[in-house]
Specification:
Order of helices and strands: EHEHEHEHEHEHEHEHEHHHHHHHHH
Helix content: 55-70%
Radius of gyration: 22 Å
Oligomer: single chain
Strand content: 5-15%
Number of helices: 17
Length: 327
């Protein structure tokens, strides 16, 4: 059974005397900074030179600092930059300026688990990974609710690392819903695996393949688009609120029977072997090496994928339907 922490397990007092520095004011950074500040904590924000996020931060009432300046002031630094940018920023701007004993918080374990950043042994290393995008983290906080998070301690140099980690989770609203105890390795591997096999890899590829199969048989692209892509939200909402068994109970008998036949045909022993291979690639660090190498060479794999999808018949159909059906 997982260990789950709630508001009554966390006290903000362990952070109230600290200066919390948020590096990066994007998807996660903005939400963290605003929630931390609204929880009554002392927050400073750092942005990279030339970043458009500086104006956004100013509009939110912060006075953005250079990352070097922030690093010399903060007692706890939330490093919330993309995985591929964080090592360079840390090495060039943070490490030369950070004070001894300054702690670090991450919203994803990639750079710590794969050691693309090597942090000082005298630093607390905390993970507070909300299970959703920053905009949702912020909107739920404002509503008085919260987004569940995964929490872990990689290093406890101060003896207060867990208390600080839970306090941070409470300050951004996550212990309202529940913060699940994990490790940097477990969060990193499960997150990467599910992104690749289900959320961002598997589901979109299945949608594209199904769309193309219908088109090849002469069916209207508009109907294929709506059936294969737009209706995914209906099932996703049921899965989110009711689970798989609850989703089954909410669909037609025809859909139940069809899924009983087709599901195991699509996800068969070959598919399961592929899933195992993907997990192996992530666990061994091979994926991290490939990602870092591709990023160093201009992210060619990602650019090629996005270009092909942007110019596909499916994308054109979606844009046309957006204009004609107004959804």
């Amino acid at each position: 059974m997982a260990t789950i922490y709630y508001d009554n397990n966390a006290s903000l007092t362990t952070l109230q005397e600290l200066i919390l520095g948020v590096v990066g004011y994007g998807n996660q950074g903005r939400a963290h900074a605003l929630n931390l500040r609204d929880s009554g904590l002392n927050v400073i924000v750092g942005t990279r030179n030339g970043s458009t996020a500086k104006d956004v931060a100013k509009g939110d009432g912060f006075e953005p600092l250079g990352i070097e300046d922030l690093s010399s002031r903060a007692d706890l630094i939330a490093l919330l930059l993309p995985d591929e940018h964080a090592p360079r920023v840390y090495e060039k701007l943070i490490a030369p300026n950070v004070r001894k004993g300054t702690g670090f918080v991450f919203a994803h374990g990639f750079v710590v688990h794969h050691r693309t950043i090597v942090l000082p042994p005298e630093s607390d290393v905390l993970l507070c990974a909300p299970t959703g995008p920053g905009r949702q983290l912020r909107s739920l906080y404002v509503e008085g609710a919260g987004l569940p998070a995964l929490v872990a301690v990689g290093q406890d140099a101060s003896g207060q690392a867990w208390n600080r980690c839970l306090a941070y989770a409470r300050a951004i609203g996550c212990t309202r819903a529940g913060a699940i105890k994990t490790t940097f390795a477990e969060e990193t591997i499960t997150d990467l695996f599910c992104e690749q096999t289900v959320l961002c890899g598997g589901v979109p590829e299945l949608i594209k393949a199904s769309f193309e199969t219908l088109i090849a048989r002469g069916y209207q692209s508009e109907l294929a688009y709506i059936s294969c892509l737009k209706e995914v939200k209906l099932i996703a909402d049921l899965l989110f609120t009711r689970g798989i068994d609850g989703m089954r109970s909410a669909i037609s008998n025809t859909a139940k029977y069809g899924s009983a036949l087709a599901g195991p045909e699509i996800v068969n022993s070959s598919t399961r072997n592929t899933l195992t291979q993907i997990l192996n690639r992530i666990e061994t660090g091979e994926f991290a090496k490939q990602f870092i190498d591709d990023t160093a060479h201009g992210s060619t794999a990602v650019k090629e994928l996005m270009s092909s999808e942007r110019h596909s018949r499916m994308a054109r159909t979606g844009r046309e339907l957006q204009e004609t059906l107004h959804f």
